[in-house]
Amino acid sequence: MKKENLKDQYRINERIREKEVRVVGENVTQGVYPIAEALRMAHGQDLDLIEISPNAVPPVCRIADYQKFLYQQKKRQKEQKAKSVKIVIKEIRFGPQTDDHDYNFKLKHAKSFLEEGAKVKAYVFFKGRSILFKEQGEVLLLRFANDLEDYAKVEQLPLLEGKKMIIMLAPKKAANKKSE
User: Fold this and answer.
1) CATH number of 89-177: 3.90.550.10, 3.30.110.10, 2.120.10.30, 3.30.1490.20?
2) Is cis: bond before 171, omega within 30 of 0?
3) What is this structure's pTM?
4) Per-residue pLDDT tens for 78-106?
């Protein structure tokens, strides 16, 4: 399906419906040519005329082998995708009256998530009437952020959204370099 989209993205040869086009490519005198002349130049080299910038005035076309051009585009997209940073968000859930052992266990997990470079979304979930303990939940999240200040910076302070009070923590850059 993606292969089809890439093919449909570019008009080639006789599908180009403009009167004049700007021609670029290797072994070509660059300039603005009537479409018939540009097609003749492309066919003379056993190559295709590929419209690469349809919105330009006049549209820009490249003389190249279409299959090779598609391959290079696909390769370029793959490289860009590999370079893009994937942000992982790990969630840690607390109750409003989480005891110390559970708290320390979750704190240890949060540290390991942050050291891996993942963001941590910690939240207190209020069930039923436990919403009365909003302040207790906020204190718990602030304590959590304070205990992780060597590993993370607070991206979003505790915020009540429905039955959840959420805090977002992002890893500090220095935390990744501590392993030296």
Assistant:
1) 3.30.110.10
2) no
3) 0.51
4) 988 888 777 888 999 998 888 899 999 99
